[in-house]
Design goal:
about 280 residues, 5-stranded mixed beta sheet, 22 strands, metalloendopeptidase activity, Peptidase_M23_N
């Protein structure tokens, strides 16, 4: 067993290729770690017992590790398997303070007055989404994403959320506000894993991009794809709406890596300034 410690040059720096998401070593971020020469077969990489996406970049295999929002600051470890050989590598996760966001939801049934039937539905939906989230497809992955909707950046990833002063889970996606009916487009190639109407999420589409990289689109007014459909970058998935638990029309966009939610902004650094600038007008 060979052990390698990786830090210093990896700290919160973007990866070398524009096609890869930015590396940011904080909870909810991504660790981009060189794990072998691309002339050799791709190694298998694991983090917290979950397979990790491995992609080629500048003659190397790089692991893209989704860091949990709950991750403690300090050294974290991945396992790298190349044939019969194995080694470990460590990377340093830095602390990050996410600000609070307090929202008022007029429909109290969406906050703390759910009926027994609502609770049964919510539990069933959680189980369904857990199964979808665990999907692993062994294939090369295009990680060069584009923003899925042309709108205004309205809520950032990781915010500590309070609905009607009731604490809830941190914001696990990126919100982009846009008028109802605005087209939601696939940011990269993938396959539609599931679609449906969910209690909190409203009309939702799940897309598998391969190797545990999933993207999810919430609160849609209309869904224009179906399960099993292959989509290419720019294909229409549906349209912006206000279904589920919302305060107004927007897209709530989630990205998963190794079953962890990561900041979608790291996948669209070129688009982010345009979306954010619209908050000034």
């Amino acid at each position: 067993m060979i052990k390698t410690i990786l830090f210093g040059s990896l700290l919160a720096l973007p990866t070398l290729a524009a096609a890869l998401p930015q590396s940011l070593l904080v909870p909810g971020g991504i660790a981009s770690i060189a794990v072998g020469n691309a002339h050799s077969p791709a190694p298998k990489v694991f983090y917290q017992n979950q397979r990790v996406l491995v992609s080629q970049d500048n003659g190397q295999w790089r692991a893209l590790v989704g860091i949990p929002l709950s991750a403690a600051p300090g050294m974290h470890q991945i396992s790298i398997q190349q044939g019969s050989a194995s080694q470990t590598a460590e990377f340093l996760v830095l602390d990050k303070h996410y600000p609070e966001q307090r929202l008022t939801i007029s429909n109290k049934r969406m906050v703390d007055e759910m009926t027994p039937e609502d609770l049964k539905r919510i539990d069933a939906e959680k189980q369904l989404m857990a199964g979808v989230k665990a999907t692993w497809t062994e294939q090369p992955v295009d990680t060069h994403f584009h923003a899925p909707v042309d709108g205004r950046l309205s809520s950032l990833f990781g915010l500590k959320r309070f609905f009607n002063n009731v604490p809830r889970q941190p914001h696990n996606g990126l919100d982009i506000a846009a008028p109802p009916g605005t087209a939601i487009l696939a940011p990269a190639a993938g396959t539609v894993l599931a679609t449906g109407n969910f209690f909190f999420n409203g009309n939702t589409v799940f897309v598998d991009h391969g190797q545990g990289l999933l993207s999810v689109y919430l609160h849609m007014t209309q869904i224009d794809v179906q399960r099993g459909q292959h989509v290419q970058p720019g294909d229409r998935l549906g349209s912006v709406g206000a279904t589920g638990r919302v305060t107004g029309p927007h897209l709530h966009w989630i990205v998963y890596l190794n079953q962890e939610t990561v900041d979608p902004a790291l996948f669209i650094p070129a688009d982010l300034p345009r979306l954010a600038a619209r908050n000034k007008h």
